[in-house]
Structures are given as C-alpha cells and as structure tokens.
C-alpha cells in the first residue's frame, strides 16, 4: 500500500557497534543517531539493553538470551514432570480402588 513504511531492522553487530560509540568512545547519542541514520530513541533503548545484558543483548528476532532459553526449557520440563506425576496418581488410585 502507498504510504506504508517498512520498519528498519538492524543486526546485533550494528547495535553493539552503535552502543560502543556512545559508551566507550564518548560520542553523544544525538551525533551517533545522525551519523548512522538511526532514531535517537532506538539508540537510548539499545544502550539501556546493553547496560542490562552486556554482550548478550540483542539475541535476534525469535531468539532468547541464554538464561531465558534455559528458563523456558526448565519450565517445559517441569510441566512434563507434573503431567507424569498426575498420571501416576490416577493410576495408583485406580489400582487401589479395583485391587489387583
């Protein structure tokens, strides 16, 4: 459609390099934004994420940080264990009731 803008996406290395210019080299967010053609708000957000997660920031679209992926795996494993426990409880109740 006419007039629709496609959202720009930037890869992890681009974001890390942009944040490095601000954090390590002391450039202002405004000057880096102007030089790279990036919105200042995006740079502020990237800088914040980098401050929180360091080099693990910006895992990519659909990817999780390693600790988030591990948490998701453990939650899935716990759900399976609970299902198995519930099935065993029902089986024990069945055999106790019907005696074998």
What does it look like?
This protein is mainly α. It has 2 domains: 53 residues, Winged helix-like DNA-binding domain superfamily/Winged helix DNA-binding domain (Arc Repressor Mutant, subunit A); 37 residues. It has 4 helices and no strands. Helix 1 crosses helix 3. The termini are far apart.
**Distance between the terminal alpha carbons, to the nearest Å?**
70 Å
User: Which geometry do the CA atoms define?
Assistant: elongated
Which sheet architecture does the biggest sheet show?
none
CATH topology of the largest domain: Arc Repressor Mutant, subunit A
SSE run: HHHH
Low-confidence parts, pLDDT < 50 over ≥5 residues?
none
The CATH class of the largest domain, by name, is Mainly Alpha
Please give the domain count.
Answer: 2
- Radius of gyration, CA atoms, in whole angstroms: 25 Å
CATH homologous superfamily label of the largest domain: Winged helix-like DNA-binding domain superfamily/Winged helix DNA-binding domain
The CATH architecture of the largest domain? Orthogonal Bundle
* Global structural class: mainly alpha
Helix percent reads 55-70%
Count of helix runs? 4
Total DSSP E strands: 0
Average pLDDT figure: 84
Oligomeric form: single chain
Please state roughly what percent of the residues sit in beta strands, choosing from under 5%, 5-15%, 15-25%, 25-35%, 35-45% or over 45%. Answer: under 5%
